[in-house]
Design goal:
This protein has 7 helices and 14 strands. The protein is an alpha+beta fold and 254 residues long. It has 2 domains: 133 residues, Fructose-1,6-Bisphosphatase, Chain A, domain 1 (2-Layer Sandwich), CATH 3.30.540; 111 residues, D-Maltodextrin-Binding Protein, domain 2 (3-Layer(aba) Sandwich), CATH 3.40.190. Strands 3-4-5-6-7-8-9 form a 7-stranded mixed β-sheet, sandwiched between helices. Strand 1 and strand 2 form a beta hairpin. It is globular.
Length: 254
């Protein structure tokens, strides 16, 4: 299943790169800033059909809704293009992210960045890797020395818990906060030690599923913003190298 998911992510990444050379059709979904492109749909169609062909008894939960979530042992979580706004503007930070849940637990995660040709993957109990190199989270032990990442949900103009207050509290306490625009890549970068921590609110399971396993298998820690165990339907995620976790949670709470 790991080999299948790795090849599938790479091939879907090529679909994205091929579409990027064309004049893209871009549409809005729930709001003017919640975008979907023809590449999102083409990538998801490719992934969903491949999973159906190989594992017809498995369920699929996917961003554009082409898969079908169903009761059973296995559930694939598919983000065919994480970073759609970046992609629509030609900003080269986006990826394909695929995870596999078995009986309620994430056991496989793959995130592929086709621009950098970086393939991140993790299996339960087998560690996390990027292009074959084993990953380990950073050793930074204080917020003051940390580089973090975050993001802002597309309904940020209409909701109170839009992360702006948290961002304002965190920014003066750290070396920097990056806003890359792809939760899947942000969590992969925590696993790789390029970022020391990440937090965000209101994303969907497919945005976070692969990153959850990548970070944990690289030696990091995952929770929601209250410090409780992160679950697939959680409304927030905090991912860190571990030593920073308590201090970051406290700062987020104010």
């Amino acid at each position: 299943m790991k080999d299948f998911a790795v090849e599938l992510a790479k091939e879907a990444g090529q679909v994205l790169m091929d579409h990027l050379k064309r004049r893209l059709a871009v549409k809005s979904k729930s709001s003017e800033i919640d975008l979907v492109t023809e590449a999102d749909v083409a990538s998801e169609k490719f992934i969903v059909e491949a999973i159906h062909d190989r594992y017809p008894e498995h369920g699929i939960l996917s961003e554009e809704g082409l898969g079908q979530e169903q009761a059973g042992e296995f559930l694939w979580l598919v983000d065919p293009l994480d970073g759609t706004t970046n992609y629509a503007h030609g900003y080269p930070v986006f990826c394909v992210s695929i995870a596999l849940q078995r009986e309620g637990e994430i056991v496989l995660g793959v995130t592929y960045d086709p621009v950098q040709d970086e393939l991140f993957h993790a299996e339960k109990g087998q560690g996390a890797y990027c292009n074959g190199r084993r990953l380990s989270v950073s050793g930074v032990a204080s917020l003051r020395r940390s580089l973090l990442a975050t993001g802002f949900f597309y309904t940020r103009a209409f909701i109170e818990d839009n992360n702006l207050a948290e961002f304002g509290r965190i920014m003066p306490r750290v070396q920097g906060v990056r806003r890359g625009g792809s939760a899947a890549l942000d969590t992969a970068y925590v696993a790789a030690g390029r970022l020391d921590g990440y937090w965000e609110f209101h994303l969907s399971p497919w945005d976070w599923a692969a990153g959850d396993l990548l970070v944990r298998q690289a030696g990091g820690r995952i929770s929601d913003v209250s410090g409780q165990r992160w679950r697939l339907r959680s409304n927030s995620m905090v991912a860190t190298n571990g030593p920073l976790h308590g201090e970051l949670l406290a700062a987020l709470k104010g």
